[in-house]
C-alpha cells in the first residue's frame, strides 16, 4: 500500500478533517492536504512523520478508537515511505545546494575522494547514483569537515538544518549535521517558510508599523555632514561604519537623486551586531523619509530560507512605494564579493575574498569623478538586472491598469486564491445593492462601476483562450459574523471597506456558480479553510505570481523570480487538485 493510500485510510478511520489533523499534529493544513492528494510525503525518520503520527494517535484517543497505536502507525507509515528513489532524489538536490552554497571545488573533491569528475557531476545532477550511497556520504562528510570547517560554512549548515551553530564545535557533531543536511526533506521547510511569509504579509498593517518605528515622527536634519573627499574602511567594524557614513552623507546632502544599492558581500558577520542593524534600518528610514527612491539589486543566490527572511524584512519598506527591487541572473561569487552603493552625494564601494570577509575593505568618496564613475557602473548593472518583482501602489494605478490589460491578453492559464469573491462574477444589480447602502459619493460609485465593467472585460478576454480557476471562501454565518467579507476592490486601489451582508455574500456565491456553468474555461473551488483574509494570490504557473494586499495599504506585488514563483505555486497547488 502506498503512503497516500495508507494515510487516507487513517483519515477515513478517524473521520477527521484536514484542519483537525493539522491542529493535532502541528503541521500546516496545506502540508496535510498534500499528503492526502499524494502531492507530497514526509521522509521516513523525519520530524514531520513523527508529528503526523502523534496527531493521528491523539485524534484516535479523543475518539476512543483503541486499536490505533502509536508504534503500529509509525511502523506502517515509515514502511510505506521507505523508497530508495526518494532518498537518492533528496540527496542529489541537497548535494547540489550544499556544494553551491559553501563553494565546493568539484575537481578538488573528485581528486580527494578518488572519483571520476564527470561521474561526480552526474551524481550531483541526479543522473547517476553512487553504488554505495552510505560510503559516498561518509567520504563527502570527511572532505567537508577537512576543507570547509570555517564559520561561514557552519553558519550555513546550521541554517539549512535548523540546528544550533554552537553545537557544531566538534568534528563528529559537524559531520553528523552535514549528513543530516544531505538527506534533508527541504520541501517541508520551504513550505513552512512560504506559509510564514504569506501570513506575515496578510497580517501586516503599515500604519501600525509606522507608529512602532516612529517613522511618522522622524525629522530629516539639514546639518551639513563634513568628511574627507575620500575615506577607506578596513575590516568588519570599519565596514559597518562605512555604510552608516554613506547614508549620513546622502541624507544630509541637498541631492534628491535615487540611491542605487547592489551587494553580494557576506551578511553573517555584519548582522551579528544588533546595534548596527538598528542604525542601518534607521538610516534606510531616514532616506525614505527624505523622499529618496531606492533601486536595489538583491542577492538571491542563496538558500531559499535566507532569501525569504531577507524579503520579510524588506516587505514593509516596499510598501512605501519608494523601492524598486531587482536581481541578477546567473551570478557566480565563488572567489570575489563586491559592494556598490551610490547616491547623488556619495559612493561607497567594497570587496573581499570569499571566506575572508574580515579582511575586506570599503571606500567612500564624494568626488565628482568618482560619483560619475559609480553612476555609470550602477547604470550598467541595472541594464543587466531583472525585476525581482514589480510593486504597484496607489500612485501606480495607471501603470497597474496597463499591467492588467497586458496579462489579459497572455496565453496562460491562471489560478487564483481569493480572500473574497471575484467582482466579475457579480451581477450589476447586486453590486448596486451592495454599494448603495454605503451612501458613497457619486464619483466613488461611478469609479466602482467603471472598474466592474473593466474587470468583466479582462476576464472575458482571459477565458477566450485560457483556463481560469478561482478558489473562494465558503464560510458559515457564524464565521462570517466574526470576520465579514468585503467587496474585492483592491485592483482599483479603493481605500474604503464595503462589507457584504451574509445574504449578499450567499447571492454572490450563487452568481459565481452560475458563471462557472456558463463558461467552460472557468472553474470554481469552494474553500472552507481559507488561510488569508487580506491578500489575494494569482498564479500563472512557471511565469508569475501576483500577490495583492487589500488594505493598509492596498498594494500589489508581481513576482517573477523563478525560485519564488516555484515555491509559491507548489505551496498553493493542493487547493486545485
Explain this structure to me?
The chain has 4 domains: about 5-80, lambda repressor-like DNA-binding domains (434 Repressor (Amino-terminal Domain)); about 85-185; about 220-385, Endonuclease, Chain A; about 395-575, Endonuclease, Chain A (2-Layer Sandwich), CATH 3.30.870. It is about 50% helix and about 15% strand. The chain is an alpha+beta fold and about 575 residues long. The two termini are about 20 Å apart.
SSE blueprint and pairings:
Blueprint: H1 3-14, H2 18-25, H3 29-37, H4 47-62, H5 70-81, H6 84-101, H7 106-113, H8 117-125, H9 133-147, H10 151-161, H11 171-182, H12 186-203, H13 206-212, E1 230-234, H14 235-251, E2 259-263, H15 274-290, E3 294-298, H16 304-318, E4 323-327, E5 336-342, E6 347-353, E7 361-365, H17 368-384, E8 386-387, E9 389-392, H18 397-408, E10 414-417, H19 428-436, H20 442-465, E11 468-473, H21 477-482, H22 502-518, E12 522-527, E13 535-540, E14 544-549, E15 555-559, H23 562-572
Parallel strand pairs: 2-3, 3-4, 10-11, 11-12
Antiparallel strand pairs: 1-7, 2-5, 4-8, 5-6, 6-7, 9-15, 10-13, 13-14, 14-15
Helix pairs in contact: 2-3, 2-4, 4-5, 9-11, 10-11, 12-16, 12-23, 14-15, 18-20
Q: How many domains would you count in the coordinates?
A: 4
Helix share bin: 40-55%
The name CATH uses for the topology of the largest domain is Endonuclease, Chain A
Counted by DSSP, the helix tally is 23
Cross-sheet strand order for the largest sheet: 1-7-6-5-2-3-4-8
What class would the helix/strand composition place it in?
alpha+beta
User: What CATH architecture label of the largest domain applies?
Assistant: 2-Layer Sandwich
In the CATH scheme, the class of the largest domain would be Alpha Beta
Largest sheet: 8 strands, mixed
Number of strands: 15
Shape: globular
Compute the CA-based radius of gyration. 27 Å
Instruction: Give the termini distance in whole angstroms.
Output: 21 Å
Strand content: 5-15%
